[in-house]
Automatic annotation (TrEMBL):
This is Calcium-transporting ATPase. PROSITE patterns: ATPASE_E1_E2. The keyword Calcium applies. GO terms for molecular function: ATP binding; ATP hydrolysis activity; calmodulin binding; metal ion binding; P-type calcium transporter activity; PDZ domain binding. Residues 43-119 form the Cation-transporting P-type ATPase N-terminal domain. SMART domains: Cation_ATPase_N (SM00831). Its main location: membrane. Interacts with PDZD11. Interacts with SLC35G1 and STIM1. Interacts with calmodulin. Gene3D superfamilies: Calcium-transporting ATPase, cytoplasmic domain N (3.40.1110.10), Calcium-transporting ATPase, cytoplasmic transduction domain A (2.70.150.10), Calcium-transporting ATPase, transmembrane domain (1.20.1110.10), HAD superfamily/HAD-like (3.40.50.1000). Belongs to the cation transport ATPase (P-type) (TC 3.A.3) family. Type IIB subfamily. The chain crosses the membrane at residues 402-423, 443-469, 880-901, 956-973, 993-1010, 1031-1052, 1064-1085.
Amino acid sequence: MANNSYSGVKNSTANHHGDFGCSLKDLRSLMELRGAEAIGKIGESYGDVQGLCTRLKTSPVDGLSGQPADIDKRKEVFGQNLIPPKKPKTFLQLVWEALQDVTLIILEVAAIVSLGLSFYRPPDAEREHCGSAAGGVEDDGEAEAGWIEGAAILLSVVCVVLVTAFNDWSKEKQFRGLQSRIEQEQKFAVVRGGQVIQIPVAEIVVGDVAQIKYGDLLPSDGILIQGNDLKIDESSLTGESDHVKKTLERDPMLLSGTHVMEGSGKMLVTAVGENSQTGIIFALLGASEEDDDDEEEKESGPVCYLFSLSPSLPCLAKNLAAGAVEFSYGDLARRLQPFNVSSLLSPSAKAADGAAMEMQPLNSDEVDIDEKRKSNLKEKKEKSVLQGKLTKLAVQIGKAGLVMSAITVIILVVLFVVDTFWVQGLPWHKDCTPIYIQFFVKFFIIGVTVLVVAVPEGLPLAVTISLAYSVKKMMKDNNLVRHLDACETMGNATAICSDKTGTLTMNRMTVVQAYVADKHYRNVPEPQLIPAAIMDILVLGISVNSAYTTNIMVREKEGGLPRQVGNKTECALLGFANDLKRDYQAIRNEIPEEKLYKVYTFNSCRKSMSTVLKNADGSFRMFSKGASEILLKKCSKLLTASGETKVFRPRDREDMVKKVIEPMASEGLRTICLAYRDFPVSEGEPDWDQENDILTSLTCVCVVGIEDPVRPEVPDAIKKCQRAGITVRMVTGDNINTARAIATKCGILQPGDEFLCMEGKEFNRRIRNEKGEIEQERIDKIWPKLRVLARSSPTDKHTLVKGIIDSTVLEQRQVVAVTGDGTNDGPALKKADVGFAMGIAGTDVAKEASDIILTDDNFSSIVKAVMWGRNVYDSISKFLQFQLTVNVVAVIVAFTGACITQDSPLKAVQMLWVNLIMDTFASLALATEPPTESLLLRKPYGRNKPLISRTMMKNILGHGVYQLIIIFTLLFVGEQIFDIDSGRYAPLHSPPSEHYTIIFNTFVLLQLFNEINARKIHGERNVFDGIFNNLIFCSIVFGTFIIQIVIVQWGGKPFSCVGLSIDQWLWCTFLGFSSLLWGQLISSIPTKSLRFLKSAGHGTQRQEIPDEELEDMEEMEEIDHAERELRRGQILWFRGLNRIQTQMDVVSAFQSGSSFQERQLRRQPSTSSQQQHDVTNVSSPTHVAFSTTATDANTASSTVGCECVFP
């Protein structure tokens, strides 16, 4: 399909490419080349990049005109910069998927059998021979209505399926909306009409001139026009981890989906969307998925190499085909990271890799690989804490339900058989067989219904609804959630490692102090106070030695502040130039970016930026700016008030640090040094690659103090975090004095605290041993008291985060959230349990590595994320408390009723209605409770806290016992209380009774009022607190009550109900309401006194998973606890069979004297599970290890080893 679309594009370009001087096909073939080959092709076909610009009717300086007609024409000829997502699943497909549920299929089959048999009626004369249970039907109309129960069950199944499908559909719609929002917010800087503008990534067209800078994720393919120290990470496409230097002379080819790691520049866009290199791979993945059934095509297509080597790529393709994943360059880049795609797509790779895929002998090298693989598996990311606990709990409840339903069916069948054929002593009549089968089907339906009620299929639904609802609401709180489980993990957070700039501070920087011309100015000096010679050097350095994308824009409204665009530190310096009444833009116009001779862009290692200008006489001048204490060490001269330079000795530097830099830093100012260096003609042109020799012997011009005020809401937000048991740490690249001052203003440090503030260098010294290796024990001595890490590199940040997460020094394992904005923050963001990227200041790379994007870059938004995360956890616990009460009561009532009265007091259709209330409606009602500030008054739950606390267990058992007493009282003496006929021991097809209708009605009303009780899980007394803040909850409770009235009064035969009188309704309602009063009584009992209560719903600890199961999970990206629980039985079963078979072979081999190896080999083809991978089975007392890798009969005996050890 993808190929067809390509041919369509190619055909359409045939008519148009003449207008542009080069076709889509030419550009695509050009972008497949690299390095010297690409430069040769550009020179041969177009002369140079300028020539290609001319052919594409664009200007390397002014870009496209931006005329709508021109843009539309380019989209038509060269395509749009988007890859259309796969179509979402239709509602009918979702219905079909919902129908695959095993319990529903069983119910459908049973209902159809029941429906068919209900139409059979034996002659009246024969009926009396079929036992007392079959008789008793006086009304022919009632007997003819026997089909209604089967039909009602089918109808209920349809309802359940439709509700499930609708939930899936709305969930998918929400996620697609979220994805499109993320994509819409992605913008990129292009030059159009000579102006730099930000446009959505999808609007970029071939011929655009895009400005690229540090941290960008390239949205299209292009050719470099001009670059400054540009380095690209192409590992997502080539697998090479080294950064590739891009220059016009060596390699100007830039590819979509790659990351700019250093530098800046301009590129000419040459391929977009499906025609870019990433787009081509993406389309191949999609095409391969479509051709999956056609083996020949799959074998001949290049993407089969992708599939053979990467387990994650087919998953990506499947997700794409299913419409679960929408296109995102970053997403593809991330997923293709470990694979060298260019080599995968070359035919030569197939032969080599094909050979490698053959099974090899289990030698020592392979054992090493096996060990590494095991260690990698143990590092696999587990599914979120909550998912792990829930899936394990759901599987355990499901198993218990299965046992109960099986026992119910067996008891019903046994009682019926004993009563009919033994007590009544009746023979088996052939004419009675359909009636007996009807009974058995009825019993089977009751058993399946018990299972349906027992299996908590509402749990995943509750999680989904709660998370989706939270994600939607979190958007309003400036949290754009990229990974759903991050929302819930945030509720468990115990530590937050936060950046300073922009997160804790406003990221609106201004120069407020300056040391210039031997004088420290406490305020920005007047222009006339600075000598002209110094002023010219200072303003020229500020203007050219900054990214040209950084600008101070005019005020948007009267009285407002000028708008800062780009790097905020550079904006502060440009603002300083404006304050000195100089126009930096005029200097930039005189010296455009193309005239800059060499640029050393800022990065976390340099902590500085330098720009070289070539003078008319052939000499060079380099301007530098950077962190003051770092750059001052590289200065050997100082510019004096007279405009002359004087020697700047180490002693002078120490004086300046004490008298200028430390006082500025103690006021929370960021200090920046501005310097320059001249390279005279006489010395010749220096070697610009020898950076250490270049960046030395500088002349200091000025030191400025830049203020970045603390956000007014941050101190209060940090106080809330500390009260909620969350430790906030500041990790910054700033000077330690500046960091300490800001941390004190924020409240991270309190006067008199014994907490640590240290620099990255000191941190590294303390955590490493003599060999320079990091030791966890050393980190454990530091991190509990560490509050500020200054002058830290991204590596330090990653080390700290990893150290805290891996630490076992505290009883509770830490859950760490991290904020980051830079490209190099990626590893720390990925390592953290929850990574927050800055939406405004953050680079594309940081956003791709994050779980949540803060759209306002504000720390107080993180506190809101904590609130929502805790709310999700509580919502699930509320739902669990409610559902387990219903589960326990419904299963025991059905089971006991069936055993004693040979019929369940709650009929199949009634149980399905209860299931609907309990699963879908309750999950919607309880999972949409809004969060309150009180959530921040308790400590985090942590990873090991059970889902069901002892307080919840007290509520579940307390309400369960109370409800059972009421239901059983009504069941056995209800007819006497209400003076009505008994409904017990009713024969087949008997009409519904008032007795059982009252039981059903009371049961439902008990659940309805208990739903209000379930709103509180920490023993609070006021269950109505804030109930009207949740309209969904009120609507569902009220709506369920109305539907219950309709079912009871007018449900009739399908619901096994008869209309009740007002008195009966009032009694049922009173009994339901009494559960609220009972709840008050339960909450009065202190949980501590009930020592016999146990908590439940602990997550699986990683150490609980045996190594062999980790091996079985090799293909999984995450450890799925439910899958693990369910597969464990299968694994043990196959392993047991395998061992028995192996041991039988060993015995028979010794008996017959034949070779065990030969026998083992003969068995190989039929044992598919062993053909897939080398198997090492270790059991006691017998242990057998074998490796099946023979490629032909001749090598078989040498490659198959057998070791048998007997006691």
